[in-house]
Amino acid sequence: MNPFAIIIGFAMLIGSFFYIAAPFRLDEKRGKANKLKGVTLESNQNRHQSAILALRDLDFDFQAGKVSEEDYGSLRTSLLAKAAATMQTLDESADARLESLIQARRTRLIAGTAPAQLNANAAGGSSCANCHAPLAQDANFCMKCGTPVQRTFCPHCGKTIMADDRFCSTCGKAIPQISLT
Asked: In sequence order, what are the residues at sequence separation of 6 or more whose Cβ sits closer than 8 angstroms to the Cβ of residue 175?
């Protein structure tokens, strides 16, 4: 046999090995990079979709007889694991986004209602139970939202309290709760 042909064949074998292994090395690099910089929602959705489509194609190929039973079992297991992992990251990112939206809403509500409550308390008046707008001393309805004003007085000191208060904010004494039953 020609030694030159053997060397060429060996070089082609090594080259084909690197060519076949390239996608696996890129996936490792992408995985490390994604862990370092964070993965976007769209890329997670694309990965999940590709895993589901690959699983569907594998099932079709198995039913068509293109994939052996032993290969089918291992490939299906790895694809299911990949789909489950991407689904878990999608759920976690959705939970994180939801929590950040809730936190932003809470801070907006606290920032929006605090000045109205401070103004009402500074003026010695009360605030609307619905929109927390300051109320006039003798108002029967809120000027901002139209909610009827229900005034409740402390039985001990006579100061205005909220209807669901259990203690007076002025004197600190317990307020007896009226039972409607």
From this structure: 154, 155, 161, 165, 166, 167, 168
Residues sharing a CB contact under 8 Å with residue 141, sequence separation 6 or more, in sequence order? 147, 148, 149
From the list 157, 156, 175, the residue with the least C-alpha distance to 166 is: 175
The amino acid present at 153, given as its one-letter code, is F
d(CA 28, CA 66): 28
State pLDDT tens for residues 14-41. Answer: 989 888 888 877 766 665 555 544 557 7
pTM for this entry:
0.39
CB 149 within 8 A of CB 128: yes
Reduced to 3 states (helix: H, G, I; strand: E, B; else coil), residue 139 is coil
Interior/surface letters 36-60, b for 16+ CB within 10 angstroms, e for the rest: eeebeeeebeebbeebeebbeebee
Neighbouring-strand partners of residue 161: 152
CA distances, 70 to each of 51, 77, 79, 89, 111 (Å): 20, 11, 15, 29, 62
